[in-house]
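Final report, closing paragraph on structural work. Over the funding period we assembled a curated collection of sequence-structure pairs, and we close with a single example.
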Amino acid sequence: MPMIRFLGLFACLSAWLAPAAVHAVGPPNADLLPVCVAAVQAGDTPDTIVQAPADRMTCGEQQRKLGPGDYWAVSGPVDRTSTAADPLTICIASLWQGDIALTVLYADGRRVTQSLTNRDISRHIELGALIGWTIPAHDAPVRRLVWRVDDSANMRGVLVGAHVMTREEARRGSLQMAAVYAGFAGLAIALIVYNLAMWGALRHRFQLLYCMMVALLLGYTLSSSGLLAWAVPDIANNDRIRFNHFFLAASASAALFFARSYFEPRVMDGWLGRIQLFVSGLLILVGVGFTPLSHWSIHLADRLYTLSFGAVMLLAGMMLWASWARRSRYRWMFALAWAMPILSGTTRTMINLGLLPWNFWADNSTIIAMAAESLLSSLAIAYRIHLLSRERDAARAGAIAAQLLADTDPLTGLLNRRSFLSRAIGRPGEQQMMIIDIDHFKRVNDTLGHDGGDEVLRVFARMLREVAGQGSLAARIGGEEFVLVQDAASAISPDAVLDRLRAARMPFDLTVTASIGCCTGPLSDEKDWKSLYRRADRALFDAKAAGRDRVRSALGAAA
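Its predicted structure, as stored:
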């Protein structure tokens, strides 16, 4: 049900945004000019094409039905004056084409033509990948604008997005676009630096794939914004578009690999993992192959490119479904991060297939969508690292608990015999060993029961931990038999142990005493241990034989 609700919400959002995309087709602060086109015929001039009969002209979205070729494009009436103080700027969308020439027709009959080769176009690229001309100042208003477009691929139209702006409008529009691109670039660089630093500490593979995805998106931003033409003014505009296609395909492929490594392995197991590898490989192949294929057939290259991105949209939907069906802990983060790229990619695919008209903001929506995806994916990485840290801490705590269970006596919390021996043997210097045995413990069990006897053992163990000095080892090595090993130079008196025991409050105020056998010697190896233990045990026997509740040393003297 949550999956159905999400898909329903996504469909509603797409339906709501699609009509808006049809109408809001221009850059910021722009009044779009209607444009009609006609195929170039012998004897045509800018003046004659303006007077051409209506049945020769094709207007609006019908342009793309004419196919590739050489075209005239005629604007609707402009009726605006370009002055020296406030010159007008005319911009159009950058499309796949050859040379282009703009002729400005003034109301007084004057005409000015500016011709650009495909390489010259790069010097006229504005932010947002728009081709811009400054209309020469003249006293008479501009009547019409006429373009001649050679070798137009006409995949999105011959000439779209034409708009005239004043210097102030152009400045505001440039600032808006600069804010979009600079904001994404700053965000991307910060995310790359942050995640590379995190990768240096944590070494999760999905962090490197994320950085690769964002770095490729930076490359896409450089080419799609027109900044590549600013950096390399001599680059042909069609070559800039080729770079644009490569970076977008490579970043999409990296995004799929990032998503695969981000999810738990069970989500991408089986058929879904194989489809992801196929689609990612297809994106790389199409991105790299776009350049040579576009020299031969730009329409075939563009159609293959569009279909490969359609496959990405389908795969993203399948990955979302699989994450829900296989109960991934990260499915919500994935859905949030990929919602905008899926919407943007679907819209652009529909535009490329001719199902929606060309749209300036849809053409630039990839930057905004991927900025949101990059930011949300970074939050998703932080969320996953948080869960991984919790799992690591839980595993570490479990390992510590297991080690404690393996090393300690479960009733008293003191070291068990095995752990005691591993730590005692090899201690440097003279060591004092005390073997302590609770007197008449069977009588304690008979009086208090086994539960009461266990409580006596716990109270005794707590007392022993309190009196043991720093670096001492206390262990339970038998039913009611305990051992305490400590450095002879800082050892406590055995009598102090008995005094603390006599003062300890036992269950039901029962009086409990103990006998202690004590000796001193080295503990450098197992042979020393056996010798020291034998002597202490013999002293304990002497203490019991002498009446219990007392101390005897291995030398036989009463302590």
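The two ends are 79 Å apart (CA to CA). The CA atoms of residues 180 and 368 lie 8 Å apart. We thank the funder for supporting this effort.
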